[in-house]
Amino acid sequence: MSEATQTIWLTQDAYDKLQAELEQLSGPGRADVSARIAAAREEGDLRENGGYHAAREQQGQQEARIRQLTDMLRRAEVGEAPSNSDEVAPGTLVTIAFDGDESDTDTFLLGSREVLGLDDVDTNVYSPQSPLGSAILGKSKGDEASYEAPNGKKINVTIVKVQPYGV
């Protein structure tokens, strides 16, 4: 992967939320799961101890999330959402027309719900690393791009509109 796809763009608010989650999981979260494992272990036979196995499963999921957050924050570039950009970038709301047909469009946010701090939005969200996202990244209104769909079909799109998200 290139350095551009390795960098994760975050608003300061999203960075702070992810950092707080990491601190919670790494500190009190780890202590809580360890205590649950220890308590379940004291109950005896571990082969048929559902509480022990559930706590171990939670521990594995928590450690995976800690690794994911650590990696995301290590690669993060903190900045503000684009305020007045005509160029497709993370944090922009993009409308594309398929094969130049302006009656066949899709509007979506380029970014990530998680890294942009969006928990519940109705807007479709595409990653800048996705085939579509990487094809249109850096393009402007009127530009054309193409990408390969998962089924191998080449899809041509035209950028119809670019605006900062939330405007």
From TrEMBL:
GO biological process: DNA-templated transcription elongation; regulation of DNA-templated transcription elongation
GO molecular function, one term: DNA binding
Domain Transcription elongation factor GreA/GreB N-terminal: 8-78
Keyword hit for Cytoplasm: no
Keywords linked to the UniProt accession: DNA-binding, Elongation factor, Protein biosynthesis, Transcription, Transcription regulation
Transcription elongation factor GreA/GreB C-terminal domain mapped to chain residues: 85-163
InterPro entries: GreA/GreB_C_sf (IPR036953), TF_GreA/GreB_CS (IPR018151), Tscrpt_elong_fac_GreA (IPR006359), Tscrpt_elong_fac_GreA/B (IPR028624), Tscrpt_elong_fac_GreA/B_C (IPR001437), Tscrpt_elong_fac_GreA/B_fam (IPR023459), Tscrpt_elong_fac_GreA/B_N (IPR022691), Tscrpt_elong_fac_GreA/B_N_sf (IPR036805)
UniProt key word Nucleotide-binding: no
Cross-referenced PROSITE patterns: GREAB_1, GREAB_2
SUPFAM superfamilies on file: FKBP-like, GreA transcript cleavage protein, N-terminal domain
Gene3D superfamilies in the cross-refs: Transcription elongation factor, GreA/GreB, C-terminal domain (3.10.50.30), Transcription elongation factor, GreA/GreB, N-terminal domain (1.10.287.180)
UniProt-annotated stretches for the region Disordered: 42-63
Bias kind Basic and acidic residues: ranges: 42-56
UniProt xrefs under Pfam families: GreA_GreB (PF01272), GreA_GreB_N (PF03449)
PANTHER family reported in the protein's UniProt record: TRANSCRIPTION ELONGATION FACTOR GREA
Family according to the record: Belongs to the GreA/GreB family.
Biological role: Necessary for efficient RNA polymerase transcription elongation past template-encoded arresting sites. The arresting sites in DNA have the property of trapping a certain fraction of elongating RNA polymerases that pass through, resulting in locked ternary complexes. Cleavage of the nascent transcript by cleavage factors such as GreA or GreB allows the resumption of elongation from the new 3'terminus. GreA releases sequences of 2 to 3 nucleotides.
Record protein name field: Transcription elongation factor GreA
Species of origin: Microlunatus sagamiharensis
Underlying gene: greA
